[in-house]
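Researcher: Good morning. I'm working through a list of sequences from a screen, and I'd like to move beyond sequence-only analysis. For each chain I'm collecting a predicted structure so we can compare shapes side by side. This is the next one on the list. No need for commentary yet; just the structure.
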Amino acid sequence: MRDAQPPDEREAAAQGRLLARPQPPRESLLAGIPPLARGLHALGLSGADGRDCLLYVPTSYNPERASPLVLLLHGAGGAARGGVASLLPLADAAGMLLLAPDARLQSWDIVMGSYGHDVAFIDRALTHTFARYMVDSTHLAAGGFSDGASYALSLGLMNGDLFTHLIAFSPGFVAPGEWQGQPHIYISHGTRDQVLPVNICGRRIAHMLRGDGYDVNYHEFDGPHTVPPEIAREAVRWFTS
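Model: Good morning. Structure tokens for this chain:
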């Protein structure tokens, strides 16, 4: 059976490291495959399980100008459409590309025990996107909600030499690892969250990351385990400013 993934990519994925990097799009090297039209699209990167990745191209996208991009990660038991939902209404005005993969299983690999298949798939999705779109390397974020927020922080800190910003809506934890770079971090958490209590999750994480020298914008709101529209708007203003 043919090994579809070179050993160095397998090793990087197991270590939680992403190899994709923004670059000028090279359509001539893509067998004539042009960028997708504006709107929401499935990338067609899935295997037999049908779990894929969504890309939203804003109506304001200009191929001659680099655009901010947010990798959005859904909560446990969710899917890409849930991951992209919080920022989708804001993408056109902000000119943001949104990339939302499905987890390979019911949640992200490090939540299940170790980095691996999800890192590899996200790397493929980023490579696919970077080859077709002008992405602003100074405004490149990983974000998510709940387990997706925990994964955005964990994977984002492991790849802080790629991601400039991390957006965590109601995270539960940050996995240990060899963190890179100094990404700016936005964390929100509801004071009435009964799924991931704020005092042992959001507050603790913000305090820990500040203690490690990270620039953390932490915001609590009066609400449960959710992403209120005003919090999403604040996160986007913070990211695009």
